[in-house]
């Protein structure tokens, strides 16, 4: 089974996360940041990855450590659950419209972390979530999952819509990339023979 369970504790956050790549998109999320809970629930639903996530963070400071550390742990869980990556499609791409917004995510489970993030978020705060942390979250996921990740806001005006389209397009692109190619189950999709 392609599953992972990680507990990470620092002086700033305590996070417990478990994922199942071959799930049904079920989510139990409690991070202390309402907007982040909403985004991670959408991520689970649209990726088909079952997620159980709890986080106790230093929200008396702000959401920075909570959001960034959630990205770190999600990236580590993805890397662990993917194992040697045999049989996966490796690449994924999805464009998601949300009302006036269009966001495209393209990713490669390459073993080489790199983030390209092109977005303009008009609003700085959504509840107790600092919107600038969106980039930090995806950078942490990319770095720790060893994923090349390109997120591009094609256009959009509403910050909630833009970030939601990012999470949905990321989830749908990831769903493509982690799928097993039934005709090449033992193959690693790399001319080098390793990802």
List keywords for this structure.
195 residues; alpha+beta; Ribosomal Protein S5, domain 2; 4-stranded mixed sheet; 34% helix; 31% strand; imidazoleglycerol-phosphate dehydratase activity
Notes on the protein architecture:
This protein has 195 residues and is an alpha+beta fold. It has a single domain, classed as 2-Layer Sandwich (Ribosomal Protein S5, domain 2). Helix content is 34%, strand content 31%. The protein contains four helices and ten strands; from the N terminus they run E-E-E-H-E-H-E-E-E-E-E-H-E-H. The strands form three sheets. A four-stranded mixed beta sheet has the order 1-2-4-3, with helices on one face. A four-stranded mixed beta sheet has the order 5-6-10-7, with helices on one face. A two-stranded antiparallel sheet has the order 8-9. Helix 1 runs parallel beside helix 4 and helix 2 packs parallel to helix 3. The longest helix is centred in the C-terminal third of the chain and has 20 residues. The radius of gyration is 16 Å and the shape is globular. The model has no long low-confidence stretch (mean pLDDT 97).
CATH H level, superfamily name: Imidazole glycerol phosphate dehydratase, domain 1
Average pLDDT, all residues: 97
Hey, roughly how much beta strand do the residues contain?
25-35%
- Based on CA inertia axes, which overall geometry fits? globular
What fraction, in percent, of the residue positions are helical?
A: 25-40%
Number of separate strands: 10
Assign the CATH class.
Answer: Alpha Beta
Order of helices and strands: EEEHEHEEEEEHEH
CATH architectural label: 2-Layer Sandwich
Number of domains: 1
Catalytic activity: D-erythro-1-(imidazol-4-yl)glycerol 3-phosphate = 3-(imidazol-4-yl)-2-oxopropyl phosphate + H2O
Protein name: Imidazoleglycerol-phosphate dehydratase
Enzyme class: lyase
Subcellular location: Cytoplasm
